[in-house]
Design goal:
The complex is a heterodimer of chains A (about 240) and B (about 500). Chain A has about 240 residues and is of the alpha+beta class. Chain A folds into two domains: about 15-100; about 135-245, OmpA-like domain (60s Ribosomal Protein L30, Chain: A, 2-Layer Sandwich), CATH 3.30.1330.60. Chain A has three helices and 13 strands; from the N terminus they run αββββββββαβββαββ. In chain A, the strands form three sheets. Chain A has a seven-stranded mixed beta sheet with strand order 1-5-6-4-3-2-7. In chain A, strands 8-13-9-12 form a four-stranded mixed beta sheet, with helices on one face. Chain A has a two-stranded antiparallel sheet with strand order 10-11. Chain A is globular. In chain A, about 40% of the residues are buried. By secondary structure, chain B is of the alpha+beta class. Chain B has a domain at about 1-90 and about 190-285. Chain B has 13 helices and 18 strands. Chain B has helices at about 1-25, 95-105, 110-115, 130-135, 195-200, 235-245, 255-270, 295-300, 325-340, 365, 430-435, 465-475, 485-495; strands at about 25, 40, 40-45, 50-55, 60, 140-145, 160-165, 185-190, 205, 210-215, 270-275, 280, 340-345, 360, 380, 405-410, 425, 445. In chain B, the strands form seven sheets. Chain B has a five-stranded mixed beta sheet with strand order 1-3-4-11-12. The longest helix of chain B has 22 residues, at about 1-25. Chain B is globular and about 65 Å long. Chain B starts with a helix and ends with a helix. The chains are: A alpha+beta (about 240), B alpha+beta (about 500). The interface of A and B includes residues 49, 203, 206 and 210 of A.
Chain lengths: ~240, ~500
């Protein structure tokens, strides 16, 4: 019975997940633009234009985008079914067919944005107190699909890991790189390119070395991590295990 | 027409009166190496739009025996040849042409090594120096492939072929890509050696745009801002001075540490900005915009983000709103710079770093550093000036470009250029010639926007003869749909910086 409920729950969950590759669509509004994507005749809302520091980094015209998101209940946003959480990965190769920019229309509004399309109105916030880690701590650096570019949030994680390792005079710092697989909603599997796990791990090691961390071990897993269609973005990663 | 009449009847007489106040202080002076001149604390020079102010914040500068002003190499040049106070510590194409005529091409600024289109050309012919005389472009010979600090070759992600070479240098058996010392020649404007505290501030350990470590100061090991030069190839003012002396001045012997420090000390205390405008009168006046004039540059803090509506890039111009025609226009231009939204599209290292493509923003998004309008982070961006199809060549329909064209072919296992793919035609690969990365092809470090009126032409490739042509380029490139009035306001705004 419990197994049956689990399977049913998994099916329902899978049913709410949308993993697909398509051209993004940009919808202008009175404020910031919305980023959308279509899959099997339906339009999904991915997010809005924000700042470099935000969690959501919009896709790009001239490129397809890999969307991995979960449908959330509630009204449409910018004309699309909202996905949350949603991971978007820009496909690196240029695709000139991805070029849809829709004009602003009455009745289609972007959700409230922390920052509008002009200069920022937000004052600099006081710096957050540093996280107080204790003992062995694993920092996780996440990546977009097939990418080793360190986005702003990942940059912060590396900086934090370096600060912690130096603060506690870490005995060992173990860097482990991974590449992963994504299960699309149509059943197809996308596998990140060979060599990416090593490249990610080596890049992080270089950064940590440059930030003054010594005594690192670097390893990587050659084979791609398996996919479950739901948590795949979390496996495109490098872990930094800092031991006191 | 109505506007012209208004200017002629009401503004011009006032402007002439105001500019007369500056006339006796204004001059146009070419400083020759080893001249022994003494530079005053504050100097003023005729500029295209009025008067350029140059401030030596440490007081008068004795040039005799000073490393910035003396010949240190073999070709008769000093730093001052290409970094003249009169021209905002750069040099204008007009001034170079005048200099050619005055010296019959004998001034060391026209040295064969980089003051001509290629050293192998007949140096007595004006046509051999056409890129310098028409566009103010010096030849920048760069070793290919690029090298690490230890001299080992950097890995490169692309091959490079010369497909057009009007100057003949890139295909030259002696100086070109297939010579014994493979070299790529690109042609670039000299950047102003003034207001440099703003240019070198803001070093961060990890470069936001690449996710890679920033270059470090070889002496202090601290990360540097990577905003020097068109391609950020020099880490510090010290390394830049050393390279310039060994390269542009063709020195056989390295300068002393004391000489390098003297150059850096001088460069670090000199500020240049428009001081008065032919229509706007004196610019740095009580109650006016706080960013104008060289004294403001001396006094302002460097490394401050200005892409906000409470403390903008060049301060507030609101006190000029509703005043005379010209100042009101400048104030509107300041507002356009800060607030006029448009779609920023296909600009590598802006759209490609997580902001999305397109990005609905303003000029200040990229030109975000207070007082100079550079990028506060390492500022190389492919805005499209050098890469086909948005490149500036030919600059006008009546011109024919004399710049080389390179074909870049990116390897299959590298990340392609985000908006041009794996085959790119470019007149200057920019940062990619240093990084070896395909994604950097055409990326040029943003320039400061101060003292513009004194140092035309603009862009790193000197393709814009006027500020109007700069504004026109952006209008086309980003489909800004600026009206003629808006363009005029932006030009007037840029003209007072």
């Amino acid at each position: 019975m419990r197994l049956g409920l689990f399977i049913l729950g998994a099916i329902v969950a899978l049913g709410q997940q949308r993993n697909f590759v398509s051209c993004p669509i940009v919808r202008d509004t009175k404020t910031v633009p919305c980023f959308l994507a279509e899959y099997e005749g339906e339009t999904y809302f991915l997010g809005i234009q924000q700042d470099i520091t935000s969690e959501f980094h919009p896709p790009q015209l001239k490129h397809e985008v890999l969307v991995e998101g979960r449908i959330v209940s509630g009204p449409r946003v910018c004309g699309g079914i909202p996905l949350q959480p949603v991971a978007v990965s820009v496909v690196k190769e240029v695709n000139l067919a991805c070029n849809t920019l829709l004009p602003a229309e009455p009745g289609i509004e972007a959700p409230a944005a922390p920052r509008g399309p002009g200069p920022s109105s937000r004052r600099a916030e006081p710096s957050r107190p540093r996280e107080t880690f204790a003992g062995a701590h694993e920092f996780v650096v996440l990546y977009s699909f097939n990418d080793d570019y360190l986005e702003f949030a990942a940059n912060q994680v590396v900086t934090e890991a370096a600060a912690y390792a130096k603060r506690i005079n870490a005995s060992t710092v173990k860097i482990s790189g991974y590449r992963a697989t994504t299960l699309l909603s149509n059943g197809e599997r996308l596998v990140e390119k060979p060599g990416l796990a090593e490249k990610r791990a080596q890049n992080i090691a270089t950064l940590l070395r440059g930030l003054g961390v010594a005594g690192m071990t670097v390893e990587w897993k050659k084979d791609a991590e398996p996919a479950d269609g739901q948590t795949d973005p979390s496996r495109r990663r490098v872990t930094i295990l800092v031991n006191p | 027409m109505r506007r012209l009449s208004f200017v002629a009847i009401f503004i011009a007489p006032i402007a002439l009166t105001l500019s007369a106040q500056y006339q006796d202080r204004s001059k146009s002076t070419w400083i020759e190496p080893n001249s022994g001149a003494v530079l005053p604390e504050f100097d003023a020079f005729d500029s295209n739009e009025g008067t350029l102010g140059v401030l030596n914040a440490s007081g008068p500068v004795k040039t005799e025996g000073h490393a910035f002003f003396m010949t240190l190499g073999t070709n008769g040049r000093a730093c001052v040849n290409c970094h003249q106070p009169t021209y905002g510590m750069s040099v204008s194409a007009t001034a170079l042409l005048e200099r050619w005529k005055q010296t019959d091409g004998k001034d060391p600024v026209f040295a064969a090594f980089d003051g001509s289109n290629c050293p192998g050309l007949p140096q007595d012919k004006e046509s051999s120096h056409s890129l310098l005389l028409k566009r103010g472009l010096f030849r920048i010979p760069l070793q290919w492939p690029p090298r690490n600090a230890d001299g080992s070759p950097k890995p490169v992600e692309f091959t490079i072929d010369v497909v057009r070479d009007p100057a003949g240098c890139n295909t030259s058996p002696q100086y070109g890509l297939k010579s014994a010392d493979p070299t790529i020649s690109v042609y670039r404007r000299p950047r102003p050696a003034a207001n440099l505290k703003y240019v070198v501030s803001g070093g961060r350990p990890i470069v936001l745009k690449t996710g890679l470590l920033a270059d470090v100061d070889p002496e202090t090991k601290s990360p540097v801002a990577m905003n020097l030069m068109s391609d950020a190839r020099e880490a510090t003012l010290q390394t830049q001075a050393m390279s310039a002396i060994m390269g542009h001045e063709q020195a056989n012997v390295s300068p002393t540490r004391k000489q390098i420090e003297q150059i850096v000390e001088y460069e670090s205390q000199v500020y240049a900005a428009q001081a008065a405008h032919i229509f706007g009168g004196p610019l740095a006046v009580p109650g006016g915009p706080s960013s104008l004039g060289p004294v403001a540059l001396r006094d302002h803090k460097a490394g401050v983000l200005g892409d906000n509506d409470y403390d903008p890039v060049f301060g507030s111009f609101s006190s000029w709103k509703g005043t005379d025609y010209y100042r009101a226009s400048v104030a509107r231009g300041a507002d356009l710079f800060m607030f006029r939204q448009f779609w920023l599209r296909d600009a590598t290292h802006i759209n490609s770093i997580g902001l999305g493509n397109p990005l609905k923003r303003t000029c200040a998004t990229c030109h975000n550093a207070q007082m100079t309008g550079q990028d506060l982070s390492a500022g190389w961006v492919d805005v499209g000036t050098t890469n086909y199809p948005t490149w500036t060549e030919p600059a006008t329909w009546a011109d024919s470009s004399e710049l080389p064209v390179f074909k870049i072919t990116c390897s299959r296992d590298a990340d392609p250029h985000p908006y041009l793919g794996r085959v790119i035609y470019t007149t200057d690969p920019g940062r990619a010639l240093i990084s070896g990365k395909c994604v950097d092809v055409g990326s040029i470090v943003m320039q400061q926007l101060r003292g513009l009126s004194a140092r035309a032409p603009y862009f790193a490739n000197g393709s814009a003869k006027t500020l109007r042509e700069v504004v026109d380029f952006y209008d086309r490139r980003f489909d800004m749909k600026l009206t003629d009035g808006e363009k005029e306001d932006l030009i007037n705004f840029l003209g007072v910086l």
